[in-house]
Design a protein that fits this description.
1 helix, 16% helix, rod-shaped
């Protein structure tokens, strides 16, 4: 059966616009769906970081090597715990062995130690002793105190508590200390005493 010509032309024209109309309806449905969903890009709650240790070590040694393969730093301990909230390693009966840029051997020990993950800061607590062995004309130096904070890369040692420094036969004591191993300068404050 043949449809009259004006009706056939109208249906042809309508079939041309059908895809556009369908696409418009789908676009509106998509827009409505996106508006109806909860906001995914809104304010986010801060991630909770563990305050308990995420790993522990027993009777361990951590060593660092130079590109040529020589050992330049070693940290030993009887027990260690890593705390992710501070990104620190807490060490019991810590011992440190190292070598400065100029070749001087360094040793330190304490009842407890805390090291930042990047190795920038090491805190020694409880009968802390740090010794730089003699090198060339520079005599051996020993620093003792209840708390010593070391920055190995900067070669600095500081304390906010009383310290005792032995340099060859000379003995210095003070309430606080800043020591720069590169320059060999000490800054002691508080009740400073010296026996030369």
């Amino acid at each position: 059966m043949k449809l009259p010509t004006p009706i056939a032309r109208g249906l042809d024209r309508l079939s041309l616009y059908t895809p556009v109309v369908v696409m418009g309806v789908l676009a509106m449905a998509s827009w409505w769906l996106v508006r109806s969903l909860p906001d995914m890009g809104g304010p986010q709650l801060p991630k909770l970081v563990r305050t308990d240790p995420d790993y522990s070590l027993r009777d361990f040694s951590v060593q660092a090597f130079r590109p040529d393969g020589t050992l330049y730093r070693e940290v030993l301990g009887t027990e260690g715990h890593h705390y992710p909230d501070k990104d620190e390693l807490h060490i019991e009966q810590v011992r440190f062995k190292g070598m400065s840029a100029n070749g001087a051997r360094l040793q330190a020990q304490a009842q407890k130690g805390m090291a930042s993950s990047d190795g920038e800061r090491v805190t020694l607590q409880g009968n802390a002793v740090a010794v730089r062995e003699a090198l060339g004309t520079s005599p051996a130096i020993s620093v003792q105190g209840q708390q010593l904070v070391a920055w190995p890369k900067k070669e600095e040692l500081k304390s906010t508590q009383p310290v005792r420094i032995e340099r060859a036969k000379d003995v210095f004591t003070g309430n606080t200390m800043d020591f720069n191993a590169k320059t060999g300068e000490y800054q002691l404050q508080g009740q400073v005493r010296a026996v030369l």
